[in-house]
UniProtKB/TrEMBL annotation:
<protein>
    <submittedName>
        <fullName>LysM peptidoglycan-binding domain-containing protein</fullName>
    </submittedName>
</protein>
<dbReference type="Pfam" id="PF01476">
    <property type="entry name" value="LysM"/>
</dbReference>
<dbReference type="InterPro" id="IPR018392">
    <property type="entry name" value="LysM"/>
</dbReference>
<dbReference type="InterPro" id="IPR045361">
    <property type="entry name" value="CIS_tube_prot_N"/>
</dbReference>
<dbReference type="Pfam" id="PF19266">
    <property type="entry name" value="CIS_tube"/>
</dbReference>
<feature type="domain" description="LysM">
    <location>
        <begin position="210"/>
        <end position="257"/>
    </location>
</feature>
<dbReference type="InterPro" id="IPR036779">
    <property type="entry name" value="LysM_dom_sf"/>
</dbReference>
Length: 262
């Protein structure tokens, strides 16, 4: 029995010995897909429940990076501590994980596979995830996605908000007539940064050093404590995000966390 995961720390997963390390999840990852007409930040409506994956990923890789460039070489008279790398901007976060799909035994949940339908072409179930990198005819681009784990949207723990930037499908088990029955999707999602009211983005601004996705039960004070280590610094967060009502924090909203001079 494996308990926990590196993001939420409260998901229980059991291992099916017949299929190696395939986890049978009690609480599954939910992918909420942006729909035309959604409003807010990010653009997901409350009635948009999304869909659950067939099996929880065994691990999640959250990559955060900053770009530095080589500066001008200082003259020998300058102390080396003034050399040479110069910060340029920070890069968008990425979340990478593998999803397993298998139609050789019954599965419960959104991607239900009943015993009387076995075995089915696994691509019937992987297509919903693969379509996240395809053009949406209503949005005229691939949709934004919100990944949650736990109770589902909007009450689950928000893992990530962004778009599917790369999905690789590997088919690994086939029927006697060549029909694929098992597949692994390597998924990469790239962070979405909401625009400011003037239409610009603060993602590369020198006075913003991080973003935070609001979870159920969060307050500005608790967010300030977690990100700036001081409850009293909630006001700069409110100002940076144009929040006029501190009690109006919808789960899933992406907040810019400014750098604060103490």
């Amino acid at each position: 029995m494996g308990i926990g995961n590196p993001v939420t720390g409260y998901i229980d997963q059991s291992i099916n010995s017949d299929l190696g390390d395939k986890p049978t999840a009690i609480s599954k990852m939910t992918i909420v897909v942006e729909k035309k007409g959604d409003t807010g930040s990010p653009r997901f409506i409350k009635d948009n429940k999304g869909f659950q994956v067939m099996f929880n990923p065994a691990s999640l890789a959250h990559t955060m990076a900053a770009k530095w460039v080589n500066g001008t070489v200082p003259p020998p008279s300058l102390n080396a501590k003034f050399a040479l790398n110069q910060f340029q901007h920070w890069l968008l976060d990425t979340l990478t994980f593998d999803l397993l799909f298998d139609t050789t035994e019954p599965v419960t949940g959104d991607d239900s596979v009943s015993a009387d339908k076995l075995p089915e072409d696994v691509r019937k179930y992987t297509s919903r995830v693969i379509n996240l990198v395809r053009m949406d005819v209503d949005l005229h681009r691939p949709p934004l996605c919100q990944l949650t784990w736990g109770e589902g949207y909007p009450n689950g723990k928000v893992l990530f908000v962004g778009h599917a930037s790369k999905i690789t499908q590997t088919l690994s088990y086939f029927s006697s007539n060549g029909k694929p029955l098992r597949a692994t999707l390597r998924c990469e999602f790239t962070q979405w940064i909401p625009p400011t009211p003037d239409g610009s983005t603060e993602a590369h601004s020198a006075d913003v050093n991080k973003v935070y996705v609001v979870n159920p039960g969060d307050t500005l004070a608790s967010i300030a404590r977690e990100t700036l280590h001081d409850d009293a610094l909630w006001r700069p967060i409110a100002v940076a995000n144009h929040i006029t009502d501190p009690l109006d924090l919808r789960p899933g909203r992406v907040l810019m966390i400014p750098t604060v001079d103490r």
